Amino acid sequence: MSDPATLAQMQAFINAQRGKVAAADDDSFINASLLRGHHLEVWSEGYGSLVGRRVNNVQNPMELKWPAMNFLNPDENVRGHIILNDSKQAQRAPEIAEGCTRANACRRIWWEPSKVKAAIVTCGGLCPGLNSIIREVTNCLWFNYGVKDILGMTGGFHGLSEPENYPTRQLNPEWVRDIHMQGGSVLQCGRGGFDATKIADNLEKLGINHVYVVGGDGTQSAGNLLFEEVLKRKLSVSVVGVPKSIDNDVLFFDRTFGFDSAVACASDIIRNAWTEARSCFKGVGIVKLMGRDAGFVAMNASRASTIVDLCLIPEVDFELGDCLAHISSVVARKGYCVVVVAEGAGQNFVATGEVDSTGHAKYGDIGIFLRDAVNKHLKEEGGRSFYIDPSYIIRSCATVPNDHIYCSRLANDAVHTAMRGFSGVCVGAIHNIVTILPSKLIATGKKRVKPSSSEWQSCVQSCKMPSSLSGLSKIGEPPLKKAKH
Fold first, then answer.
1. Domains of the chain, residue spans
2. Class for the domain spanning 77-256+399-446
3. What's the CATH fold of domain 260-394+450-480?
4. Number of neighbours of residue 363 by Cβ within 10 angstroms
5. Residues with catalytic annotation?
6. Which site among 75, 149, 364, 429 is 20 to 30 Å from 435 CA-CA?
7. How far is it, in rounded angstroms, from Cα 49 to Cα 51?
8. Cα–Cα distances in angstroms (integers) from residue 396 to residues 17, 100, 129, 392, in the given order
9. Distance of CA 209 to CAs 48, 173, 317, 380, Å?
10. What is the pTM of this model?
11. Are 416 and 451 in contact (CB under 8 A)?
12. Residue range 60-94, pLDDT digits in tens
């Protein structure tokens, strides 16, 4: 039994988190623990609870198949903040202070499986694991719930907005059996094409009442708009998102699917740069990795390979002179050097001042800039650089086994969440437990590397980087990258 002092400390911590929630009176603030308004009972029956405990009265068919299976209580809560005496308490997100509803299967569900017609859509760019998600959503619906009417919409949201122009695929276990063995998306990803009115019209026309939206924060923002449209029409449609981002920059969740696979692929490429560098007199291997606004891929690939001497990420500003001085000292010490740079790092050196059609800044090529600077710096010493830009290679690779397992968890829990009657939500892991969060919350910004985090500090120590390049000497954290709507 815990002693009274410990119990009092725990209660004080919980009260402090509740105080943070209460203090957040901004209209845009979303308390993740409150899923009222995201359950179909609200607009179907005119009243609402937090998790549909009162009205979910359909027996889960899995209970008949596996009577001894452990099912969740429908109101299980995963605490968002779990550290007492937290040194970084001020940095914790108040939105999850009250916790989040746990995903996975319950004994009672909202949907009668025989009435479900599902659609899966993959949006945005490629990411390892897309086919794993498609496969596991299909298999969970088919084998666990007996749902046999499952559509794969091609071309991203175009397939939902214009099904007459984009071929719809009927999904079944035979068709998806081996797709997880290959990269990319068998449904063909696509950008744009979102029109909530058209999509809602087509959902009614086609009789679709489950929509599984796979994509990044922009896609989930669109998924929320679709949810609001079907809510306005009082259509019983479960819209459930599975967030993806090769940059791992989705807010609140531990990690996104495909990230581990991308890091594994990037680590192999770093070894190629290492081989080139150490096979040359005073060689410097430079690898540019994806990461426009967040350096998670660069940071984790550097830590995973343990052969990187300098890691540059968007969240940490640096002086070119400090980089070159560190490279020279490493070359002097061991004869070669390996550098990893995220594509969004050092944009103050290469900024274009231009924007693309979506209003996002066109980034300059920091990799080429760094390559030329290093070559010029080492020329008199007889050294040179070897530059590798794997670009889309790391996002088009097949998923690694551990990542496929994570994809399976997310896909299964997306189906369980939809079957429980939720809509306008996403699933993702918090403290390695898959939870349910409002999609609107996911779309409020982007997660970024914190220079004070133990992960970044570990990377700095592994690379033996000086304090001038670590970002640790600066007070504060990088600002939240607000999503563009």
1. 77-256+399-446, 260-394+450-480
2. alpha beta
3. Rossmann fold (3.40.50)
4. 18
5. 247
6. 149
7. 6
8. 41, 32, 9, 6
9. 20, 20, 48, 67
10. 0.87
11. no
12. 999 999 999 999 999 899 998 888 887 878 878 88
